[in-house]
Each structure stands twice: as structure tokens, then as C-alpha cells.
Amino acid sequence: MADAPASPAPAPKPKPKAEAPAPVVEKQQLGVKVSKDLKDRARAAFRHARFHEQVPTFGEFVENALEAEIQRLEGLYNGGEKFEPDSENLPRGRTI
Prior knowledge:
single chain; about 100 residues; mainly alpha; 2 helices; elongated
């Protein structure tokens, strides 16, 4: 009985490409006062979004809401272009 021919060794599997790490985004505190009703509705909306849309934190929920409103305003008043970042202090108190 003759020996069966040796089968070729399987080709090595290519190594998966390492994904570039996500850029680190510096987070900063944003403090604003809102009505109790709006605060409570936001908390309720977050609880639903957390379950249905996998929004892990209230901070991410608020970020998403701010982003949506900013994009709406950019479309309305800035030709759809992003507003230039502005780090100057905002005026305090009510406008006259």
C-alpha cells in the first residue's frame, strides 16, 4: 500500500487589522438650570432611551439631544455648516 500524498499545509490566516483607537474626547461639566417638569421629562425619556436605544448614560442622552438641536439650528441659520466653536463666556442672567 502506497502512502497517500501529504496534503499541503493550510495557508496562514491573515491577522485582523487593528482598529485605530477612538480619539479621546475631553468632557467638560455643563451646568444649567431647567424647570422641574423638563428635568423630570428628560429623566423619563432617558429611562426609555436607555432601554430601547441603548443609551448608556444620562450624559450621553443630553449630548445627543444638544447635538440634534445644534444641527437643526445650523441647518436653519448657517447653511447646514457647523457653527464655529465659541469658548467665550456667555452673558449671565436674563436678557434685557
